[in-house]
């Protein structure tokens, strides 16, 4: 198991204080810089490993950064605190973005990111709760993480605990029927402490989601299953902070976050081949330069 980075933890706490105390413009600056740092780390990790899912990693970055930078009640020094908020990345193939966010939040040293997908590295292609602090459950097979999140939220309700549970799903992942069973169960038990965020980039491996299996009207589907539904620009930290606030209806919350696959790197954005394509050396340099502007 990787261990906490004290310097990173201190930076995380300072950032969280600034996000809490500053005006909106200051909060957005903090979260925007963290998103840039995470994206640059993702590009380097995938370049080093020559493996990964760069399009989805860059798509989900702002959602992860908003959660860890401004919403989740978590402490890197106490990753198993029983009162912590729970976060599950159901689209587990985008582990690089989660690892980079955790490292920039002090859960383990940034230097470990260079081991991404190396033999015997804790940072393998899908998150492992036994190896990486901040990972609640192993994910990878699509449609598995959301039901676990429902279980976490139901456990909190049964035990009378106040922690919240958040789960991020890919939009292509919603073609798995287990997700809709989970959604129905969460609404049945009025799991108001549960928030599901859909990374709605409209692309999946090999094609657009609507060509593969039509999801729209997606918001209406969540509402018909008994959820409080909110929309947001998934790259606007202010909109995400608002959308991730607690339930106002006593029902679980679904946030449909409109995103761009490959966000931040122009030649990757909204291109289906970058689901797991690896950039060459010139493309890596161009991406890092673009992410520095």
Automatic annotation (TrEMBL):
Domain of life: Bacteria
Keywords assigned by UniProt, alphabetized: Thiamine pyrophosphate
SUPFAM superfamilies with a match to the protein in the record: Thiamin diphosphate-binding fold (THDP-binding)
Domain Transketolase N-terminal residue range list: 38-286
Requisite cofactors: thiamine diphosphate
KW Disulfide bond (keyword) present: no
Family, as annotated: Belongs to the transketolase family.
Protein name: Transketolase
Organism: Streptomyces coeruleofuscus
């Amino acid at each position: 198991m990787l261990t906490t980075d004290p310097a990173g933890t201190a930076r995380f706490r300072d950032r969280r204080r600034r996000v809490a105390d500053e005006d909106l413009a200051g909060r957005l600056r903090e979260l925007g810089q963290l998103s840039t740092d995470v994206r640059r780390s993702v590009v380097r990790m995938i370049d080093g490993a020559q493996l990964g899912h760069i399009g989805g990693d860059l798509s989900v970055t702002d959602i992860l950064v908003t959660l860890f930078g401004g919403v989740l009640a978590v402490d890197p020094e106490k990753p198993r605190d029983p009162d912590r908020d729970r976060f599950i990345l159901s689209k587990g193939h985008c582990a690089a973005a989660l690892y980079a966010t955790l490292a920039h939040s002090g859960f383990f040293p940034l230097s470990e990111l260079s081991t991404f997908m190396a033999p015997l590295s804790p940072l393998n292609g899908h998150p492992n709760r036994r190896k990486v602090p901040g990972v609640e459950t192993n994910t990878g097979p699509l449609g598995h993480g959301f039901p676990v999140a429902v279980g976490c939220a139901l456990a909190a309700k049964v035990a009378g605990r106040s922690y919240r549970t958040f789960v991020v799903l890919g939009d292509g992942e919603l073609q798995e029927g287990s997700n809709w069973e989970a959604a129905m169960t969460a609404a049945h038990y009025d799991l108001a402490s549960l928030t599901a965020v859909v990374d709605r980039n409209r692309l999946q491996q090999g094609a657009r989601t609507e060509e593969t299996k039509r999801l729209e009207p997606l918001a209406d589907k969540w509402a018909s299953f008994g959820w409080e539904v909110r929309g947001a620009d998934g790259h606007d930290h202010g909109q995400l902070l608002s959308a991730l606030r607690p339930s106002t209806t006593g029902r679980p919350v679904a946030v449909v976050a409109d995103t761009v696959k490959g966000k931040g790197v122009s030649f990757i954005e909204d291109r289906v081949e970058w689901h797991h394509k690896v950039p060459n050396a010139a493309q890596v340099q161009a991406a890092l330069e673009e992410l520095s502007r």
